[in-house]
Each structure stands twice: as C-alpha cells, then as structure tokens.
Amino acid sequence: MASLELLGFGSTGWGALLIAATLMTLAVTATALAIGAVLGAIVAAAKLSGNIILVTLGNVYTTVFRGVPELLIIYLIYFGGSSAVTAIGKAMGYEGFLGLPSFIAGALAVGIISGSYQAEVFRGAFLAISKGELEAASAIGMHRGMRLRRIIMPQVFRLAIPGLGNVWQLSLKDSALISVTGLAELMRTSQVAAGSTRQYFLFFIAGGCLYLLLTSLSDRVFNGAERRANRSMPASAMGQA
C-alpha cells in the first residue's frame, strides 16, 4: 500500500512527477529528432554530392559523432555551450556565469548524435530509389526541383521510415543521459524519487516500465506509418524497393 501511495495513489505520490518527466522525455526526443533530421538531410546531400570536400566533411561528421560516446558529447555541448554563452554575456557587459538551458543543451546534443545516424538513413534511402524513375522524370522534362518534390522526397521518406524508427528509439534511450545536466526528464526524476524515498528498486523499475511503454508505443506508430506509406505506393514500386 505504501508503494502505491509513493507512485501516485496517495497524497505523497510521485506519479504525477513521473508522468510529467515522461512528457519531458518525449519533448526532448522529438526536438532532437527534428534537429537531427535537418542535420542528417544536409550531411546526406553533402555525401551524395560527389564533391570531394563535401563528401569528406560529411564522412568526418558521421564518423566522429557515431564514434564518440554520447555522454561526452552531452558534456561538451552543455559545458562548452555554457562557456560560450558566458563569454558572449561578458562581451555585452554582463558579469557572472550564464548556463545553457538543460533542455536546449540536451536536445542539441542528442540531435547532433541523431543527425549522424539519420544522414546514413537518408543516404541509403536515396540510393535505394530506382534509377529508372529518375531517368524517366528527366526524359519527360521534369526540372530538378520538381523531381525532388514529386519523386525523390516521397520515396526517400517512405524508404527511410524503418531506419528513422530505429534512430527514434536510439534517441529516446540517449535522452536518459541528459539527466547529468539536471533536466527533470524520466531518468532524473526516477533518480530523485529513489534517493528521496530510499525505494530504489520501486522507482527504477517504474522508470524502466515507462521507457518500455514509450518504446512499445513508438514501435506501433512507426510500423503504422510504414504500412500507410507502402499502401500509397504502386505494387511495382514496392517490388523494386
């Protein structure tokens, strides 16, 4: 009974805070995925451009941010960003330390990591497009912008959905590392609740169950999006893919 009260069924429950922390985790992950999508699209375009400089820069980005530990990147963004903001503040006449907000630092760090994986997802999706479709579009006089809008982007999005689902799950788990910045996401709140009540097993199990719920629901969403995208494609195109 005491455990139920601690989890939110009594006046001293932590349930509402865990739910709020879960929503914060979703907000951070969604923001990070959006940042990563922009970075990933730019890097994928660079790696597909054929320009040796752009290809090299793209390769460096994906190699570094997929090879360096995620926690180190979060520390670099959080503390490095805070130092940069403080330096800017001093240049403008403000004295004192200015910390980079935990949400911004966490979403940016996870977004940069996510972008290194999304770049490869987008690049692979583009390479999977049938060359015959692109040649046919050129043959009937489609200009580059129209080919991008009507053929390339819809196909890339459809083919990238499974990979993006995996990147979402990766970012969702990486969001737990943002707890080191003090952001009250799910991992941080579970730690605080466990430390305050000394019920470590209870709250870490509760946090794990909420993460499992998020990943299970995410799987259903991405699987549904994939089925919907595939239904909108002709059978011949699906066969080629």
TrEMBL record:
One of its GO terms (molecular function) is transmembrane transporter activity. The keyword Translocase does not apply. It is found in: Cell inner membrane; Cell membrane. Gene3D superfamilies: MetI-like. SUPFAM superfamilies: MetI-like. Pfam families: BPD_transp_1. Keywords: Cell inner membrane, Cell membrane, Membrane, Plasmid, Transmembrane, Transmembrane helix, Transport. The chain crosses the membrane at residues 12-45, 52-78, 98-117, 200-222. InterPro entries: AA_ABC_transptr_permease_3TM, ABC_transp_permease_HisMQ, MetI-like, MetI-like_sf. GO terms for cellular component: ATP-binding cassette (ABC) transporter complex. CDD domains: TM_PBP2. Residues 22-222 form the ABC transmembrane type-1 domain. It is a multi-pass membrane protein. Belongs to the binding-protein-dependent transport system permease family. HisMQ subfamily. NCBIfam families: HEQRo_perm_3TM (TIGR01726). This is Permease component of ABC transporter.
